[in-house]
Every structure is written in C-alpha cells, then in structure tokens.
C-alpha cells in the first residue's frame, strides 16, 4: 500500500512543497494513526483474527480464499474512498504454506507449525550494497569507525536468527572485527 493523502502534512513551514521524510518518527506516528481506521475495520467488521500490520505492510490470514478476496475488495475500496490511498502491486492472496513475504523476509510455515524466516534475495542485495557504501564512506573519512560499527552491528542483529544467511553473517562479522575500537 502506498500512502498518497489528499493534503500533505508539512515538516517545517519553509518546506512548502515537501512532505515528511521516510523514516521520520512523526511519519511513523502518522502512519499508525492514519491506518487505524483500516485496523479497526479489519478486526471489528471483517473479524479477521490473523491480522498483522507494521506501518503500511499488512497480512490477513484466513482459511477461506473467497472471503479474503472479498476482504481485499472492501479494504481497497475503503482505502481509496476514505483515506485516498492505493494498494500497491505487491498486494496478493496466496497459500501460507508457500510462504509470505513480509518486511524483507520470507516467512515459511513448516509441517510442525513452526515458522522459518529467510532473508529475501532482494534484501540480501540491498544489505550488501549498504555494507559496501559504509566501507567507502569510512575510507573517505565521511563517517567514523564508531558509526560503521553501530550500523554493521544493527545489520548483523537484524539477520542473526535468519536461515540461509550464514555467508552474509560471516561477511558482516568479519568486517565488524576490522573496525578499530
């Protein structure tokens, strides 16, 4: 879902044509408040028990595919008519056993009921690009070693419990140890 409100909320009076930057704490708060209408509708009217949302990414889980198709139709309508939002091209209905893409991970339901998380290949590529950029910024003395260590440590902790990312974890921890204290 992409947010395209009718009127933009301005960060500062002198930024007349600029909305809130992505990642800004106030934009996170506004996303939570703005989409509360959808949250309540899904839980109270559609009665979906398996519902997860983080910012503008959401998952609805239900046994009946036709009911999910109905939910998609009414949610899309509610978003467009009341909130002036559109659902993006990633919106889909699928089978949980085939895995669910959510927040950069592929969540796979195992036969025993446990869930395996794998980092999407696009997320791996993006992470590698960030790591290379960090190294270049450090080499040019644009950022210091402490900043590089903090960022790489955050990347490592983000993927430490993810299956199939061992090489990437080794790369990050190897690079992390090269950072001077």
Topology:
Blueprint: H1 25-34, H2 36-45, E1 50-54, E2 57-61, H3 65-83, E3 100-102, E4 105-109, E5 115-119, H4 121-139, H5 145-159, H6 166-178
Antiparallel strand pairs: 1-2, 3-4, 4-5
Helix pairs in contact: 4-5, 5-6
Description:
- With 181 residues, the protein is an alpha+beta fold.
- It is built from six helices and five strands.
- Strand 3 (100-102) and strand 4 (105-109) form a beta hairpin.
- The N and C termini lie far apart (42 Å).
- The model is unreliable at 2-13 (pLDDT under 50).
| N/C terminus separation | 42 Å
H/E topology pattern: HHEEHEEEHHH
Largest sheet: 3 strands, antiparallel
> Regions with pLDDT < 50 over 5+ consecutive residues?
2-13
Main-sheet strand order equals 3-4-5
Q: Mean pLDDT score, rounded?
A: 81
Instruction: Choose one word for the global shape.
Output: globular
Tell me the number of strands: 5
Strand content: 5-15%
- Number of helix segments? 6
Derived structural class: alpha+beta
- Rg is 20 Å
Please estimate the helix content. Answer: 40-55%
Key traits:
single chain; 181 residues; alpha+beta; 3-stranded antiparallel beta sheet; two-stranded antiparallel ribbon; 48% helix; globular; disordered N terminus
In short:
This protein is α+β, with helices and mostly antiparallel strands and 181 residues long. 48% of the residues lie in helices and 13% in strands.
């Amino acid at each position: 879902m992409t947010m395209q409100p009718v009127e933009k909320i301005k960060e500062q009076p002198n930024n007349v044509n600029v909305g809130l930057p992505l990642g800004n704490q106030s934009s996170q708060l506004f996303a939570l408040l703005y989409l509360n209408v959808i949250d309540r509708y899904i839980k109270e009217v559609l009665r979906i028990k398996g519902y997860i949302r983080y910012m503008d990414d959401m998952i609805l889980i239900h046994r009946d595919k036709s009911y999910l198709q109905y939910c998609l139709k009414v949610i899309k309508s509610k978003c467009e008519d009341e909130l002036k939002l559109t659902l993006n091209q990633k919106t889909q209905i699928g089978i949980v056993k085939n895995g669910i893409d959510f927040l950069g991970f592929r969540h796979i339901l195992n036969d025993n009921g446990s869930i395996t998380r794998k980092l999407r290949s696009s997320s791996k590529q993006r992470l590698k690009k960030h790591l290379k950029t960090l190294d270049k910024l450090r080499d040019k003395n644009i950022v210091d070693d402490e900043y590089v260590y903090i960022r790489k440590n955050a990347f490592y902790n983000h993927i430490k419990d993810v299956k199939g990312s061992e090489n990437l974890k080794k790369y990050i921890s190897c690079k992390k140890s090269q950072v001077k204290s």
